[in-house]
Please model this.
Amino acid sequence: MPQRYFLEHINQMITGSDAHHIKKVMRMKYGDDIIVCSEGRCFHAVLTALEPEVTYDIKHELQRPNDLNITLIQGIPKHPKSEIVAKYATIYGASRIIFTEMNRSIAKIENNPNKLTRLHTIAKEAAELAHRFDVPHIEMVSKIEKIDLEAFDIVILADENEKSMTLEKAVPMVNTHQKIALIIGPEGGISEVERHRLINQNVISVTLGKNILPTEIASLYVLSYLSLKNS
Model:
């Protein structure tokens, strides 16, 4: 498969780190095929020049698959676990990732644009690797209470205290018209106060099996299940 690049605009020119990757890492040449994506659309293209600028011509547009709309609400973990979340949640199909402080969070939300830029770069590279049509939006929210859970059709909470409600029981079917949210607690899980508050908001608590999963990979269990249900 041709190498994929997410660009700000489809304007027949590639600059910056993507141009460097094409010339110095991939060592591409005139006439090589690539895929360029922007704003949820991807195109098969062919390189027309590498010097002085990397340019391309569009061959045809690719058909976008019917992906699910899944927001991962992740209790912020310690560094570098947030980078693991950004990478693998992207590969496994999250369309949006919200890092938020929860009662047992050790790490804190900081107003650090460089950190968000770093996480977006990781997600972009993961989206290219996974041959996605878009890069998930990543944001930081200071408290989970500030997230409007009523905006979602289904909200799933991974809860180590839940023993009987499986994903199969809780979400037997999915479709691309639904807005789905998945809440994963930080290291140490969710507190009793959070558990009761979320349940009172009609959040569905589910078990992810008998083994306790690390916070940075727990979402992959649910994202894999939902992806298979949508296949």
In short: The mean pLDDT is 95. The radius of gyration is 20 Å.
